[in-house]
Design brief:
423 residues, 15 helices, 16% strand
């Protein structure tokens, strides 16, 4: 414990006035001061949802208190104000991921909604019986089930990139899977279950050499890594607000303009139309063609504020600090007798999945909760990953830039107590 405190103190002070100060950052998150079961909250479940800084919470309150109005449709002051902030958020997202145009940013309900949108729209136009869709063995259910549904509907075949025991994609096998029948490659940027950072740049290069588009599930990458969709050259990129300090119920689908222009909308209604008669409907321009109905205005604005907040801290600083934290957690937790860490890829981000000999992960989670420590226990919506690794479930500690080495020490103490209880 003392070593961790001294390391953090040194890091917070340092010789650089711009050094990352985790204790200062924690002051921005009201929930981190509360207690659970009479103990200080240790929140290690950010892969499920991150905590929210006060500036984001205040932005939601301000919207509903001062400017609540529908967007795009009104000429009155409140509607114009709401529309301006809503569209400003879209531009912030464009810049955050370095998209070429703001109309390449589609607001969705989250990563899941974005992936489903592509599966339905692209699949309706381009996927037929005998075609193939490639995903990986690391996928969250949200990047499995929509493609399964598409295959059932069209008669296409789902093919899986295998992983090794460390949780890394077997890229040689992936290269051999590419052929003219493949119509889409859809893979996660960062595994939610193991933390593996996939070689997505290489995946995209290989797929594009066969003229195959690529969708990336960026739910676990956008909060932790600097994402540049033009440098990656991906065709689609989906991510969620609530995992990157923003509100729930809002997310983003990025798509290259030429794809979005060519694809049909999947939901009809208000705001996605240019004109409607009983004989024919013509669709609105991008991005509104894919945003039917009243959007999630307040939470889109909140996401824009969350992006401002992350930019102010700096994604590079966040990534560096979280990498140090993950290394410390891996060393500290991995040294406990009876603990096995699953997912030992060379490139990882912010996730530590583990098991304890003879103790079910749900029991681990329950005892840790009594110590005020929040981890996730289960299959993490990644049952094929669990099956490949030969376990029914894991306990997962997922880290964020507001966590500390002291909290990792608390987790280690909680694990030791769990072992003592079951011994």
């Amino acid at each position: 414990m003392q070593a961790a405190q001294e390391a953090e103190k040194t890091q917070a002070v340092g010789n650089n006035e711009n050094a990352f100060d985790v204790h200062r950052v924690r002051e921005d998150f009201p929930i981190l001061t509360r207690q659970v079961h009479g103990r200080p909250l240790v929140y290690l479940d950010s892969a499920a949802t991150s905590q929210k800084p006060k500036v984001v919470i205040d932005a939601l309150t301000r919207y509903y208190n001062d400017q609540n109005s529908n967007v795009h449709r009104g000429v009155h002051y409140l509607s114009q104000l709401a529309t301006r902030e809503y569209e400003d958020a879209r531009v912030k997202i464009q810049r955050f991921i370095n998209a070429a145009e703001s109309h390449e940013i589609i607001f969705t309900g989250g990563t899941t909604a974005g992936i489903n949108l592509v599966a339905l729209s692209y699949g309706r136009k381009h996927v037929h019986a005998g075609d193939e869709i490639i995903i990986s063995a690391l996928e969250h259910h949200s990047n499995i089930v929509p493609w399964q549904m598409l295959c059932e509907l069209t008669g296409a075949k789902l093919r899986i990139i295998p992983i090794n025991d460390a949780g890394e994609l077997q890229m040689d096998e992936f290269a051999e899977m590419l052929n003219p029948k493949v119509k889409m490659v859809a893979v996660t940027h960062v595994s939610n279950a193991l933390g593996t950072v996939n070689p997505v740049k290489r995946i995209i290069e290989l797929a594009h050499s066969h003229d195959i588009p690529v969708l990336l599930d960026g739910a676990q990458a956008a909060p932790h890594l600097k994402v540049d969709v033009r440098e990656l050259d991906c065709d689609f990129y989906a991510f969620s607000s609530h995992k990157m300090c923003g509100p729930t119920g809002i997310g983003v689908l990025y798509g290259k303009s030429h794809w979005l222009e060519s694809l049909p909308p999947v939901m009809g209604g208000g705001d996605m139309i240019a004109s409607v008669t009983f004989e024919k409907t013509t669709y609105n321009s991008l991005p509104y063609k894919f945003e039917a109905g009243t959007p999630n205005i307040a939470d889109a604005i909140g996401l824009g504020v969350a992006i401002d907040y992350l930019n102010e801290i700096g994604l590079d600083k966040i990534a560096t600090y979280e990498h140090e934290l993950l290394e410390y957690a891996t060393e500290t937790i991995g040294a406990i007798a009876g603990v096995t860490i699953l997912g030992t890829a060379r490139e990882k981000a912010s996730v530590l999945s583990f098991t304890i000999d003879g103790i079910h992960p749900h029991d681990i989670g329950t005892i840790l909760d009594q110590e005020g420590i929040a981890v996730r226990a289960g299959h993490h919506c990644a049952q094929p990953v669990m099956k490949r690794l030969g376990v029914p479930a894991t306990a997962r500690a997922s880290l964020a830039f507001y966590n500390t080495k002291e909290e990792i020490d608390a987790l280690a103490d909680g694990i030791q107590k769990t072992i003592e209880v079951f011994s």
